Amino acid sequence: MSSILGPKQFQIPRIFPRPMSHSGIWYWLGTVDHKKIGTMYGIVSFFWFIMGGIEALLIRVQLSQAENDIISPELYNQLFTMHGTTMVFLVVMPLSAAFFNWLIPLQIGARDVAFPRLNALSLWVFIFGSILMNISWFTGEAPNGGWFGYPPNSTIQFNPGNGMTFWVLGLNVLGVASIAAGLNFIVTIINMRAPGMTMMRMPVFTWMTFITSILIVLALPILGVAGIQMTGDRVYGTNFFNSEAGGDPIFWQHIFWLFGHPEVYILILPAMGIVSEILPTFARKPLFGYTFIVFSGAIIGFMGWFVWSHHMFTVGLGPAANTAFTLSTMLIAIPTGVKIFNWLATLWGGSIKFTTAMLFSIGFIAMFTIGGLSGVTHAVSPSDAQQQDTYYVVAHFHYVLFGGAIFAIFGGLYFWWPKFTGYMLNERLGILNFIIMMIGFNLQFAPMHWLGLDGMPRRIYTYAENMGWELSNLAATVGGFLIAFSVLIFIINVFISRRNKKLASGDPWDARTLEWSISSPPPHYNFVNIPQVEHIDDWWYKKYPELLEGSPKQTKSAKATVEDTSNVDESKIHLPDLSYYPLFVGIGLSIAALGVIYSYALVTIGLILVFWGCIGWSTEPVNEPHEKHH
Amino acid sequence: MSNQGVTVHHGEEINNSTGVSNKKLLMWAFLGSDVMFFGTFIGTFMAYRNKSLNGPYPEDTLDIPITSVSTFVLLMSSLGVVLAVHYLKESKMGLAKFWLILVIIMGMIFMGFQVYEFTHFAHIGMTPQANLFGSTFFTLTSLHGAHVSLGILWLIFLLYNEYKGNLTSENAIDLELAGLYWHFVDIVWIIIFALLYLITAGDGVPPGGLPWTAGH
């Protein structure tokens, strides 16, 4: 959007006055502060985490015994479809986005992201898109074609009703949110770095966010196209995946996985970034091989584009294609392995503190390695022919996405919680949370390895008694409830810590990167003085400059202290005013998408809202003139 | 350099790590994203080329001479945007407005041709529902048309601001960004015209019979 800053300010008449108050509901609805937006991302996606978890528990209850009939096959299909979709698009991606929002400006020494209102737009589009997709539960026809929506199972001929239409439209709306956020963080990281913060001095989390954002803006449009084509097929009678007209269902698999495989790295790279921040902090030594970790991340991001057909080994692409994708998939394990060894070397010889965040990070390395190794076994296409669509695959991707991404996210929550809120989480409950989650997780997903190798297929709502699968399935169900219990401990921990308020200092962990050089929670302008960066881990070396001169150990007392905000003249720090336009554009987009299913009137209303919001937005000054103190 | 007290206007001024304004970087990144969007549609078209099981086939529908005219008009409009930005930067407002109006008119002519073409196609039974050629052709060209229409609206908005005196040489970047977008949409059309029209125009019944029966 272009803002017109001319001799005169052109503004369209406002329907509502611009929110100005810095408290109350309108502040949250109109905020453009990256920290508030990050908090809302976190709360909403944690809500969906619980919803997706309940869906998983229902699946587990159904599978706990052979020939169980608690849940109908129809509902079962809806549950596993929405569980997968929710966990990928409404949990891991937005939870990562919560960390991006909170941390990127703080880590690069900026006062906000490059486009604060665009950031708010991403949030609102995500929230309304997630609601749009879940409205389908209330109409009784939730999506039921799997989170990958393969035709012909998802075409209107074989899957009538609105379920998959909701799914595909929801994904398209969520894609808009992701692309807008991705663009914003690319520009922020390239352009908003503090003086001296060269690319190779950026924290690893910032680097991984940068690579993830590039993947998002390049991969999500592909899903958008797939979504438009499927919407066309389902609603307007086009023929993309209709084999009666010559359309090829396999073509959907190609474009879906052409998006879907980079998506896997969109999910895991932020987690790798989080772990790369936590490990050096609590091993109390620099990250081993910073350059290698950064370039491994970049290589993973690049090679992630050349492995998509390993999801399709059994389709019959022929030996040449299968061999090529086997090789590329094995190659991508190399940079991943490089990272794992670098993390281990970071721990080696460190004076390790076993905090909750550290435990989750070490858990991440172990679980992610198991998941990565079972992934390499899928890479071998003949072996994959045995594993395709069995529980072995389910075990694999839960080890990388739960044992990987979710473990790292929990580690990140414990690590940055004091920065987000200003008080510490209870460590004792935290360690309990970790132990139970670790046990529950392995109890749930380790048996799936042998269940899968024994031939238990994915996505079946029940199985016969004489298959010998009952004990393993029962164990998995118990594990699922243990995970749920551990999440409950986390929630209890949040409330207990909130009541006890053990206040955190700005730098409670004696950490390394810039976000710890300011008070907790940070003031709304973040930095009093934009820092001048001289090193990787600049804050660490500002505290302990003797380490740069070859001293083996840091002295007891830090030489730099957290920024004092007690006598700051806030009138000199200008931040953008609130804006309600992103909210209305977000609502409008979802209404328009809903209209594709129900009525053109809704499409019109939605598009009018979007159009009005965009014009209002582009003519709205960043700051109201009367607020300026010149 | 300490930035204390420096007004931070996000995205409004060149006060950043690279010297490229945030807005321009955003536009380039967005265009990169849009490349993947059009690329996938173009890929779909090429993958489904010669796969339609029934007519109307491209040889029955496409009219290269007519589309060549609209292509020429659209490509010339890119020159117009360049000149509009150039004169705006030099504060020659009359010429800047003249070229901008011309660009808008050329964009509308292009859209007029597309509307004519679509109606004509529908008239002879080539619809998005007719066959694979129709599905792939209409989604790609209509989404390109949507991009052009959005560009026209954007340019009209900027023209209005030129008349109001809000868009001057100081913020010529706003027109430059619209120009970047406009050039991109033109470049995409070159690819669409080459692939969807020029090399496809002679396609009739798939060579070697219909693909699903060819093996038997």
Describe the structure.
The complex is a heterodimer of chains A (630) and B (216). Chain A is an all-alpha fold and 630 residues long. Chain A has one domain: Up-down Bundle (Cytochrome C Oxidase, Chain A). Helices cover 63% and strands 0% of the residues of chain A. The longest helix of chain A is centred in the first third of the chain and has 36 residues. The N terminus of chain A is likely disordered. Chain B has one domain: Cytochrome c oxidase, subunit III, four-helix bundle (Four Helix Bundle (Hemerythrin (Met), subunit A)). In chain B, helix 1 packs parallel to helix 6, helix 3 runs antiparallel to helix 6 and helix 4 runs antiparallel to helix 5. The N and C termini of chain B lie far apart (76 Å). The interface between A and B is large, with 65 and 63 residues.
Multimeric state of these chains? Answer: heterodimer
CATH class category label of chain A: Mainly Alpha
User: Beta fraction of the residues of chain B?
Assistant: under 5%
Task: Kindly state the percentage of residues in helix of chain A.
Answer: 55-70%
Task: Give me some keywords for this one.
heterodimer; A: mainly alpha; 17 helices; 63% helix; disordered N terminus; B: 216 residues; mainly alpha
Quick take:
By secondary structure, chain A is mainly α. In chain A, 63% of the residues lie in helices and 0% in strands. Chain B has one domain: Four Helix Bundle (Hemerythrin (Met), subunit A) (Up-down Bundle).
Topology (SSEs and partners):
The complex is a heterodimer of chains A (630) and B (216).
Chain A: H1 25-30, H2 34-63, H3 73-108, H4 116-138, H5 163-191, H6 204-236, H7 249-283, H8 290-303, H9 319-347, H10 356-379, H11 381-387, H12 391-421, H13 427-453, H14 470-500, H15 538-543, H16 581-598, H17 600-619
Helix pairs in contact in A: 2-3, 2-4, 2-14, 3-4, 3-5, 3-7, 3-12, 4-5, 4-16, 5-6, 5-16, 6-7, 6-8, 7-10, 7-12, 8-9, 9-10, 10-12, 10-13, 12-13, 13-14, 16-17
Chain B: H1 22-47, H2 58-61, H3 64-89, H4 93-123, H5 132-164, H6 173-198
